[in-house]
Design a protein that fits this description.
CATH topology of the largest domain in chain A: MetI-like fold
CATH architecture of the largest domain in chain B: Orthogonal Bundle
Order of helices and strands of chain B: HHHEEHHHHHHHHHHHH
CATH architecture of the largest domain in chain A: Orthogonal Bundle
Oligomer: heterodimer
Largest sheet of chain A: none
Number of helices of chain A: 17
CATH superfamily of the largest domain in chain B: MetI-like
Shape of chain A: globular
Number of strands of chain B: 2
Distance between the termini of chain B: 46 Å
Largest sheet of chain B: 2 strands, antiparallel
Order of helices and strands of chain A: HHHHHHHHHHHHHHHHH
CATH topology of the largest domain in chain B: MetI-like fold
Strand content of chain A: under 5%
CATH superfamily of the largest domain in chain A: MetI-like
Number of domains of chain A: 2
Number of helices of chain B: 15
CATH class of the largest domain in chain A: Mainly Alpha
Strand order of the largest sheet of chain B: 1-2
Radius of gyration of chain A: 26 Å
Largest interface: A-B, 99 and 117 residues
Shape of chain B: flat
Strand content of chain B: under 5%
Helix content of chain B: over 70%
Radius of gyration of chain B: 29 Å
Structural class of chain A: mainly alpha
Number of domains of chain B: 2
Chain lengths: 306, 334
C-alpha cells in the first residue's frame, strides 16, 4: 500500500454507513438498540433504586414498592432527601469515625504502596546486586501462581508478632500486609525498564546520587504509573471487606465497608438508612472513576498487555 | 562545549552532596579516571558495582522485609502447618500428624460440596461474563455519542464494591424486597431466593456478573482500540467480509487481552468469598459455601489451622494447574 493510499484510507469516512438501509439491517439495528437499552436498565436500576430509596423514609419505601413510584423520589424538597443520612450519624456513633478510618487506612496504604513498591521496582529494573535476579523470579512466580494461603496463616503470623493484642496494633496488623504487592513491584519494574537510560546516566555524570536521581528524575517522569498504582491501590483498600471484618471486631475501628455490616444487621432495620450508608460508601470510588478514568483505562491496558 | 560540560560537572558536584556519587563526580571533575578496582567487586563469580549494590539493597529492603513476613512466610507456615494438628489458640504445642490432614481433605463431604459450589460458580460465571463483556465491547466499539453513554452505564456497577453489591442485592432479594414486589406485579409470584439452596447460588452468580462485566468490557475496549483501522481497510480492499474480518483480525488482535482477562477472572472466581459471606453465610444448607470461605471458616471460625492449611495447599495446586494450563493454551505465539 502506498503512502497516499494509507492516508486516503485513514481519512476516508467509515464505509459501513454507506450501505443501503435494507429491512434486515433496520431490524438488526432495532434489536441492537432495544437490547442495549434493556440491558442498560438491568445494570442501572438497582443503583438508581439505592440512591432514590436513601432519599425517602423506610415506610414510604415499602408502601411504594409495588408501584413505579419506587423509582422516583417521594418529595421534591431536596433538603428532606438527606434525613436518612443525618439519621445515620445520629443512630451510629461511629459512622463518622468509620469514614475517617477508611480515609486514614486508604491514605496510609496508598502512600506506603507507592513508596515501597516503586523502590523495589526501580531496584529490580536498574540496579544489579547479588540476589536481584532471584527476587525478580520470585516476584514473577508470585504473580503467576495463585497461592490460596492469604488470610489464615497471615492471621497466625499477626498473632505471633503481637499485632492482634491492642487496637493500635490491630491497625498496624491490618495495614502492613497490604503494603507490598508482587504485582505492583512488577508493574513499576516494567515501567522503569521502558524508560530511556540516558536520563539517569546524564544525571549521574552531573554528580547526582542514585537516591537523588530516583526522586528528581525518575519519579516525575513516571507520574503515569504512580497515578495508576495509586488509584488501583485506593480502590482496593477502600473496597476491602473480608480482612477488615476479621481484624476489627470493635465498631470504632471498622472502615466503612466493614461498618456496613453493622448498619445492615441493626435491629430494627431501617432500609432507607442502609441505602444511605451504601451510597455514602460508594461516592469516593465514583469520584475516583469519574476524574481518573484516563489513568484507569491506561492501567487496565498496561496490565492487560503486561 | 567541553568547557560547558566541565562547568556542569562542577556545579553538579557542588549541588549534590551525596557522599558516594558526589565524591566520584569530584574525582571525575579533577580529570583523573577512577580506579576500577574500588568500584567493582565480585560475588559468586559475578561482578557487581558497589554503588548499585548499596543503593539497590536500600531500595529493595522495605519490600523484602514486608514480603518475607507477609507473603513468603504465610506460604511456608501454611505448608508446614498442613502436616500438623495446629489449633489457633494453642500454636505453641503443635504435633506433627503426617499426611492425616490431607487424607481428611479428600474424605470431607462438606469440602467436596464447597468445591462443587465453587466449580459451578466458575463454570457458569466465566463464559457468561466473558461473552457479555466481549459482546458489549464489540457493539460499543464505534465512536458515536450513544455508545459513550452506554459504556458509562454498563460500567457503573463496577464502581460498587463487592460488599456494597452484596448488601444492595441482598436487600433487593429479601422476601419482602423489590424483586419479589416486581415478580408479584408481573404475576410470576413470590420466590424464596436466598432462602432456597438452589436459587441462592444462582443469585450470587448473577450479581457477580452484574458487578464485574463492565470492568472486562473496559479491558476489551482498550484492546480493540489498539487495532489499527488501516488493517480493516486493507482487509476490506482484499475482499474480506465482516465475518472474516472478525475472525482473522479482531480475534487474533485481542487474544493477548483475552488471555489476561481469562486468567485473572478465573483466579478471582476461584477465590469467591465476599458475596456468600455477606449474603448467605454459606447457607442455606451449605448451598453457597465456597472453597475460600471454607478455608477461612476452618482456620478462623473453627480455629483448625492445620486442616485449613492442608485444604489451602491442595487448592493452590489445583488452581495453579488450571491457571497455568489456561495461560499456555491461550498464549499467543509471536
Amino acid at each position: 500500500m502506498s503512502q497516499a493510499q494509507v492516508q486516503a484510507a485513514a481519512f476516508a469516512p467509515p464505509k459501513k454507513n454507506k450501505k443501503p438501509w435494507t429491512a434486515a439491517r433496520i431490524a438488526l439495528s432495532i434489536v441492537k438498540w432495544v437490547g442495549l437499552t434493556l440491558l442498560c436498565v438491568l445494570f442501572l436500576f438497582p443503583i438508581w433504586w439505592m440512591i432514590v430509596s436513601s432519599f425517602k423514609p423506610q415506610t414510604l419505601i415499602y408502601e411504594q414498592l409495588d408501584s413505579f413510584m419506587t423509582f422516583l423520589p417521594s418529595t421534591w424538597n431536596v433538603l428532606e432527601w438527606f434525613t436518612s443520612y443525618g439519621n445515620l450519624f445520629n443512630s451510629f456513633d461511629y459512622f463518622g469515625t468509620a469514614i475517617l478510618n477508611s480515609i486514614l487506612y486508604c491514605g496510609i496504604t496508598v502512600f506506603g504502596v507507592l513508596l515501597i513498591n516503586s523502590f523495589a521496582g526501580y531496584a529490580l529494573a536498574r540496579l544489579r546486586f547479588p540476589g536481584s535476579n532471584v527476587i525478580t523470579t520470585i516476584v514473577i512466580l508470585l504473580i503467576i501462581v495463585p497461592v490460596e494461603t492469604s488470610i489464615v496463616p497471615q492471621y497466625v503470623i499477626l498473632s505471633h508478632l503481637g499485632l492482634l493484642s491492642s487496637p493500635v496494633a490491630r491497625v498496624a496488623g491490618y495495614l502492613l500486609p497490604s503494603l507490598v504487592s508482587a504485582f505492583y513491584i512488577f508493574m513499576f519494574r516494567q515501567y522503569f525498564l521502558g524508560m530511556p537510560k540516558e536520563l539517569e546516566e546524564a544525571a549521574e555524570i552531573d554528580g547526582a546520587g542514585k537516591f537523588k536521581t530516583y526522586f528528581v528524575i525518575m519519579v516525575p517522569l513516571a507520574k503515569a504509573i504512580f497515578a495508576t498504582v495509586a488509584i488501583f491501590t485506593f480502590m482496593g483498600a477502600w473496597n476491602e471487606y473480608v480482612f477488615a471484618d476479621l481484624m476489627f471486631p470493635q465498631a470504632q475501628q471498622k472502615p466503612l465497608q466493614a461498618f456496613l455490616q453493622l448498619v445492615n444487621t441493626y435491629n430494627p432495620k431501617d432500609l432507607s438508612m442502609v441505602m444511605a450508608a451504601l451510597t455514602v460508601s460508594t461516592i469516593p470510588i465514583a469520584i475516583v472513576y469519574i476524574f481518573c478514568q484516563r489513568y484507569i483505562v491506561e492501567g487496565v491496558s498496561f496490565s492487560g498487555l503486561k | 562545549m567541553k568547557n560547558n560540560m566541565k562547568e556542569e560537572e562542577g556545579t553538579g558536584a557542588a549541588v549534590f552532596e551525596s557522599p558516594v556519587a558526589g565524591g566520584a563526580a569530584a574525582v571525575m571533575a579533577g580529570g583523573k579516571p577512577p580506579k576500577r578496582k574500588n568500584r567493582y567487586y565480585t560475588f559468586l563469580g559475578k561482578t557487581y558495582k558497589k554503588d548499585d549494590t548499596i543503593v539497590g539493597l536500600c531500595f529493595i529492603l522495605p519490600a523484602l522485609i514486608l514480603g518475607c513476613i507477609f507473603v513468603i512466610t504465610p506460604i511456608v507456615i501454611s505448608l508446614a502447618y498442613s502436616f500438623t494438628d495446629a489449633y489457633l489458640l494453642r500454636l505453641d504445642e503443635v504435633q506433627a500428624v503426617g499426611f492425616d490432614q490431607f487424607v481428611k481433605v479428600f474424605k470431607d463431604g462438606f469440602l467436596w460440596n464447597a468445591f462443587g459450589n465453587t466449580m459451578v460458580f466458575v463454570v457458569i460465571t466465566m463464559p457468561v461474563q466473558l461473552c457479555v463483556a466481549l459482546g458489549l465491547a464489540l457493539i460499543l466499539n464505534t465512536k458515536i455519542k450513544a455508545n459513550t453513554f452506554f459504556r458509562w452505564a454498563f460500567f457503573v456497577p463496577v464502581m460498587l464494591s463487592l460488599a456494597v453489591t452484596s448488601f444492595l442485592w441482598g436487600n433487593l432479594f429479601e422476601h419482602d424486597g423489590l424483586i419479589n414486589a416486581i415478580l408479584i406485579k408481573l404475576g410470576i409470584g413470590e420466590q424464596p431466593f436466598l432462602d432456597d439452596p438452589g436459587q441462592a447460588m444462582g443469585i450470587i452468580i448473577f450479581i457477580s456478573i452484574w458487578q464485574g462485566a463492565g470492568y472486562q468490557m473496559l479491558i476489551f475496549l482498550s484492546g480493540l482500540k489498539n487495532i489499527q483501522p488501516e488493517i480493516y481497510e486493507a482487509a476490506s480492499l482484499d475482499g474480506a467480509n465482516s465475518v472474516q474480518r472478525f475472525f482473522y483480525i479482531t480475534i487474533p488482535s485481542i487474544m493477548p487481552t483475552f488471555s489476561f482477562v481469562l486468567v485473572t477472572m478465573l483466579i478471582g472466581a476461584f477465590r469467591l468469598i465476599t458475596q456468600p459471606m455477606i449474603m448467605t453465610q454459606g447457607g442455606p444448607e451449605d448451598g453457597t459455601m465456597t472453597m475460600s470461605y471454607y478455608i477461612y471458616q476452618q482456620g478462623i471460625t473453627f480455629r483448625d489451622v492445620g486442616y485449613s492449611s492442608a485444604i489451602a495447599m491442595v487448592y493452590t495446586i489445583f488452581m495453579s494447574a488450571i491457571a497455568l494450563t489456561l495461560r499456555k493454551v491461550t498464549e499467543v505465539k509471536d
